[in-house]
Amino acid sequence: VEGRLFRLPRILFEEQSTMFKNEFLLPSPPTNESDEAGGRVSISIRLDGVNRTEFESFLWVLLPLPHLDMTKQDWLDALQLATMWEFGSVRQVAIDSLDQLPFTEVERVLILNEFDINKWRPTAYTRLVLREEPLSAADVGALGAQLAAKFSAAREQ
C-alpha cells in the first residue's frame, strides 16, 4: 500500500474475503519466497487505489485489537475497504461502531446510501423528514437535487 509492505497472516484475508481467497490461488510470481516443497510462504499483493491511512484503519478493525482511538473517518475508511473487499464481519463492526457516533441527519443518510446500510434507513430517513429545520442549500448540495426533492416532498406531507 503506497509502497509500504504490510506483513500479515494471509488466513485473515482468505477466510473472510472471496476476493482475497481467489487472489491467493493465483500462481506465485518468482520473486515470492517458497518453502522447500515449492509451496508459497509469502505473497505480495499490491493494493492500488487504497491509501495507507485507509488500510491501517481497516487493519485496526480486522485484527483483534482495541478500537478506542478510532475517529469517524477511520471507521468510514474501514467500512469502505470492508465493503469493497467483501469482509462481512469487518463491515458489521464498522457499521455498529459508526452507529454509536454522532452524525447529522444528512451525514447519516449519505453514509447509509453510499454503503447500503439498510438497518439505518428507516430511522435516518424519519429523523431527516421530521427535523424542525428545513433542508439548507448545503444539505441539498450534499444530498443531490433528486433526493433532496424527495425529502422536501415528504416533509411537506
UniProtKB/TrEMBL annotation:
It comes from the Eukaryota. This is BTB domain-containing protein. It comes from Rickenella mellea.
